[in-house]
Amino acid sequence: MGLMEEVHEALRRGHYSFRTEQAYTGWIERYLRHHRKVAGAWVSPEALGEAGVEAFLTQLAVERKVAASTQNQALNALVFLYEKVLDQKLGAFEAKRAKKPARLPEVLSRGEVAAVLDAVAEAPADPLVTRMHGLMANLLYGAGMRLTEVTRLRVKDVSLERGRVMVRDGKGAKDRAALLPERCIAAMGEQLAWRNRRHEADLKRGGSVGWVPMPYAQVRKTPAASRSLAWQYVFASPRVTPTPVMRLFMDGSAASGGAPLEDPAMMQAALERLGLADSQDVEVRRHLHENTLQKAVAAAVKRAGIDKKASCHTLRHSFATHLLEDGYDIRTVQELLGHKSVKTTMLYLHLTSGGGRGVLGVVSPLDRGAGRRARRERAAQPRSTVR
């Protein structure tokens, strides 16, 4: 087994997300290429040790001038290589560190949020996709969800009755409950009804249609779940994608973004349970790609005439800031955002806080007044003449 195969295996054994796997393997490959270029020949990472890591990280900061977060990711990847794959503890080293600027996240005012959400909902594009983008943007702000958490939301994780969604395998492989704003419930109900109709139509087309990428552990327990409505993506693509059945299952337990399963024995067992052949293609309805929503929000910011560097993540920043402005304590906001450390949440506002309340009793800032419908509802309310 080659070194990079060992790295892949160690990452999957540790149930790292697919994105982390891609990032770590990319940095390890760049590290090895860098030292091969410097030495003019292959140099084993064992021989490079702390000095090799220090030289590489210094080169990133001094020559390539990468951001502090980028350099930290490279460091984490190399620590993983040495400690988890090569079983070699790294000693102390003094690499030149990239400076992390003391910047607060960009935040939109409530009026600016309203303008962006309205612009997303009125985009001159395919009506079906525009409708989905409108609801997704409302969840970015109204629930404080991350971009991938919204795009990879599954039907089973939405509760209209309880007014919440479950975020599975969020950042740090954690689950959490997030708000489903009252203003989103009707639109979400319509989206789920559309998703049900589309899935029923897919199933009627035959056994090669209606599949969805699944974690292998779930397939092993309940094979039929691979074609069930519960596991389908809420924000599914209008088009199906022909996919080799070998790419249908995900490694590990990551329901939202795991790596494709590559172990032959495990794959064969999964196929047998589903009655599929390994040479077969199936038609998969994947979720809308993150890039499409990013472009929709960027275009909406421009159409709204907002001169800020705003993105999908800016809506999440605005959610946190507006909750704090509304008087919710920092611990509650931390829980809703899914932050591991309260220090991360403190970037939004430095407040003393008590225990968090989670979803219970929290009114989404979306329900407090961002968006066209909320403005209409406030305008329709009778004004008091009492002074």
TrEMBL record:
Family: Belongs to the 'phage' integrase family.
An example molecular function term from Gene Ontology annotations: DNA binding
Keywords (A to Z) from UniProt: DNA integration, DNA recombination, DNA-binding
Keyword DNA-binding: yes
Matching Gene3D superfamilies: 1.10.150.130, Intergrase catalytic core (1.10.443.10)
InterPro entries: DNA_brk_join_enz, Integrase-like_cat_sf, Integrase_catalytic, Integrase_recombinase_N, Integrase_SAM-like_N, Tyrosine_recombinase_XerCD
GO biological process: DNA integration; DNA recombination
Region feature Disordered, mapped onto this chain: 368-387
Name of protein: Putative tyrosine recombinase
Presence of the UniProt keyword Metal-binding in the record: no
Segments forming domain Tyr recombinase: 103-361
